[in-house]
Amino acid sequence: MAGTEWYDEFVDRDAEPRDGDLLALFSFTPDEDTSTLEALGRIASESSVGTWTTLAQMPDRVPDLKAMCYDWDEEAGTCKVRYPVELWEAANVPQILSGVAGNIFGMKAVARLRLLDLRIPQEIREAHPGPHLGIEGIRDELGIPERPPTATVPKPKLGWTPEQHAERGYEAWVGGVDLIKDDENLTSQSFNNFAKRVEHLARQRERAEAETGETKSALINVTAETNEAIERARLVAEHGFEYAMVDVVTTGFAGLQTIREATGDLDLAIHAHRAMHAMFTKIEDHGMAMYCLAKLLRLVGVDQLHTGTVIGKLVSPENEVVANMDQLREAHTDPRDNLLGQDWGSIKPAFPVASGGLHPGIVPDMIDLYGPDVVIQLGGGIHGHPDGSTAGAKALRDVIDGTMRGDSLDAITQDSKEAAKAIETWGTEQPK
Ligand code: CAP
Ligand code: MG
Questions:
Q1: CATH (domain of 55)
Q2: Which of 416, 394, 424 is nearest to 174 (CA)?
Q3: Does residue 165 sit in the same domain as residue 121?
Q4: Among all ligands shown, which has an atom nearest to the Cα of 366?
Q5: CATH at residue 143
Q6: CA distance 96 to 92
């Protein structure tokens, strides 16, 4: 179509990525009437300075602001785009996503598009705090030098009063669980007021710490309008807890950046639940790869992030889970299939969280997959134990402690009746 030829100016196989560029890796499928080159030109153009037609006048700086598609594999359906760092407001993640994850996903010329990874240049990386405590800081706070920290959600998801919620928490804490986590849709409903839940959890935590001699904490969900979320985080800190839990996707990056600043001042770590991510991460040829989302969340500064289990109840392919954990924990990753590689400078590593349909019979698989630097959460896998939440928690702890010693599940169940009952109940089945 006449007047749209300038898309060609955004594709150049001889262009080289520069150290300061933001790099993006996409998978793409042109629509049936669009050539590969035109699709590539539109992706680079519409995510940087262009629109659908050649323009009558142009500011002098535009040539220096243009993105460039510099590499593509037509067979694999992937392409790499370099973006001059001047295109971006380094400390503004919403603005960056409005570029690389914005209009280009709605273009008719590109039938499918998936943002697989971003290589974040130093100028943007250094504009963000990263995790407040990180893996080492959390291990120090909880007094858990080696094994995976454990968490549980008082199930059912909703319905307990604050007092009952905290009682379920106490039962799990004295059974050996470290963290009592709110469910993702528990905030401050009529039947479970946030402030009351914090108070009851603080009281039950004192009991549980006195009885066990272990440090206990909670992942209390502050998700709300941002000012309210910060007030809730303040209340959590005032009661001596170490974390604020945030549903980071529904909160959005603008809210999360503001909350991260406040939680840093309150000396709180952030536990990030990713509810709603599957709306755009699950379908493998469109949207955004979970490991790209994980990278941005580590950059902004969550300390723990749900990253899937491969074998649990929620879709999480192994290559994605491995990429998720690498993005969160490594100080440096080299480029490899569908990953651009990343230097993290002084940004701390964050804990991946394995959760979703887990029970003691498949926890050794989780430790095999993740190694010990993972938080393991069991909700139904503890509160569904036939002998109750304390037994369920002890079953989890016994399986983790045994696995860390190198014991087999059989050996563990010889010494732990709670673990034996859990295996009797769920075996080593992978839930659907
Ligand atoms: C797990 C969970 C978590 C999911 C989130 C739930 O409960 O509390 O929200 O793990 O998924 O509500 O399902 P169960 P992901 O332990 O009882 O399954 O971790 O993949 O983000
Ligand atoms: Mg949940």
A1: 3.30.70.150
A2: 394
A3: no
A4: 1
A5: 3.20.20.110
A6: 7
Q: Quick one: how far is CA 128 from the chain centroid? A: 16
Indicate which residue's Cα is closest to atom 16 of ligand 1: 379
Q: What token pair was written down for 176?
A: 């050996």
Q: Which amino acid is residue 124, in one-letter code?
A: I
Q: How far is the CA of 168 from the centre of ligand 2 (A)?
A: 15
pLDDT tens for residues 77-90?
A: 999 999 999 999 99
Give the per-residue pLDDT at 317.
Answer: 86
392 C-beta closer than 6 A to ligand 1: no
Q: Is residue 74 in some structural domain? A: yes
Q: Do 263 and 175 lie in a common domain?
A: yes
pLDDT tens track for 101-122: 999 999 999 999 999 999 999 9
Active centre residues (catalytic): 155, 273
Number of domains in the chain: 2
Model confidence at 3, pLDDT cuts 50, 70, 90, reads: low
Indicate whether 45 and 80 sit together in one domain: yes
76, 337 Cβ separation under 8 angstroms: no
Q: Is 271 in the pocket of ligand 1 (CB under 6 A)?
A: no
